[in-house]
Amino acid sequence: MPDKAADEAAILALIERNRIAVWTGDFEAWESCFVHADYTTRWGWWQSGGIFVRRGWDELQARMRDSGPRPRPNYAYDTTVHNLSLRIGADMAWATFEQHYPGPEVAEGGTGLTREMRVFERHDGQWKIAFLGFLAGAAGGLNIFHLDTDGRVRWASASARTALAADDNLVIRNGALRFRDRRLDRQLTEAIAWAAALDRTYMSTHGALPILAEAGEGLATRIYWIIADAGLILFSLGEQRANEQRLDMAARIYGLSPAQRTLAGLVSEGLSLGEIAACMGISANTARTHLNRVFDKTGVRTQPALVRVLLTAFAPV
Questions:
Q1: The model scores a pTM over 0.85
Q2: What is d(CA 45, CA 26) in angstroms, rounded to the nearest whole number?
Q3: Exposed e or buried b for every residue in 205-242, given b needs 16+ CB within 10 A?
Q4: Residues 6 or more apart whose Cβ sits within 8 Å of residue 133
Q5: Mean pLDDT by 10-residue block, N- to C-terminus, for the chain (317 residues)?
């Protein structure tokens, strides 16, 4: 085997060995992958924690030993490498690539895709990692579709596919995600075009647009998001946990009392005023008083408008 081919095989094996060591909690195997020097660096971005920088082997190994990720064998063995670009010199090499992780709960709510970079050095004939960087997926939550600029589905989490099957508003036609309702589908098309435009400049920007499917009484209003982040176009199906977080944030923004926050949550679930009163153990008149005070604080006068304001009080990115 030519030297270049041998070096490439060794570096690919090192990438795999490092990933397996991380996700199986094998500290000795993990530390054997790295240069042990004060210039050894690890930095990255992930949804739950944002940007981080770790400098020096002492800091890297201490953090891994004390608080490394919990073992996930499927991440270790079922993750695949794509779009590898590898350049090899005499005693230094670098690589960029993508890692596609399995499962619906990837990267604490990312898209299942991480963009990776490594710088390698050769020490005593063995390749070691001197720098490790990554961008872990993008924002959005668990129920995520990754779309292209025409709305075609490039990737979807397992939980998103499950949620889609139970969602009367959405359908996949000819590989593209569509709303059954023409008005909502037009909003989706416009939102995808908006997201695509954010990645056309030298430096991409990010943002999110909501699409609200307002339901009748007895049915919850559904909120969907088109998210532009890290150069990706993502579609997020509404998640109850995310909605609760938005309602909590809205309660802080608008100064809602605990009772008003509870009422707002029940309104967002599509309950009538009488049903809300029964759930809260109060009279219908008291429920109406709470609702009017929420209207006053938020500046709206109808329940659909209230749901729109509360569930879009802050965006996923």
A1: no
A2: 23
A3: ebebbbbbbbbeeeebbbbbbbbbbbebbbbbbbbeeb
A4: 42, 43, 44, 116, 117, 118
A5: 84 97 96 98 83 94 92 93 95 95 52 86 97 77 85 86 90 96 96 93 84 68 84 81 82 94 88 90 94 95 86 71
